[in-house]
Structures are given as structure tokens and as C-alpha cells.
Amino acid sequence: MNVNVLKAIGVAVIVLLLAVAYNMYSSSVENDFKDISRTETYRMGDHFTGFYHRPGCPKLKQAQGGGIRFESNEAARAEGYSPCKRCDPDGPNE
Ligand SMILES: [Zn+2]
User: Fold this and answer.
1) At 69, which helix (H) or strand (E)?
2) Domain spans of the chain?
3) Domain named Ada DNA repair metal-binding: which ranges (predicted)?
């Protein structure tokens, strides 16, 4: 086998691995989003981003370090936190 064939195989393997990793990542995020509880009423604030989230929000899982628990949206806003656009903590609880 010559060097060019080996290079082509190497590139193909890398592209395939990236595609598989991306698929796994995007499907896990989608599944996480479906798992966000809308019955829990407490909120978690991420002091690095300044957003507050529903428990189980994938954005919160990505946060570095621990979150801050708030008992309500109002309590989080009173501390200067903004609602997450992903989990919509100010939206209706189901
Ligand atoms: Zn969120």
C-alpha cells in the first residue's frame, strides 16, 4: 500500500469518527432536552453565565462548577439572573 492510500484511509476514518461523535452529541442533547422536568418548580442558577434554569437543563449540565438553587423564578431574578432560553424557566409548568 502506498502512502497516498494510507493518507486517504486516515482522512476517511477521521471524518467518520467526527460524524459519529457529532451524531451521538446531538442526539444526547435532544434526549436531555426531553428529560427536562417541567414539574419541578425550583430553579438552578449558573453564576458563570448569569442564567437560571429548570433542573435538568442541558445548559446547566454544561456549567462549570456548582449551581445555586433558587426556590422561584422571582428569587433568581432578584439576584440578577436571567432566564435560560433553552429550558424556558418562565414558561408554563406541565
Ligand atoms: Zn436552561
Assistant:
1) strand 68-70
2) 43-83
3) 35-90
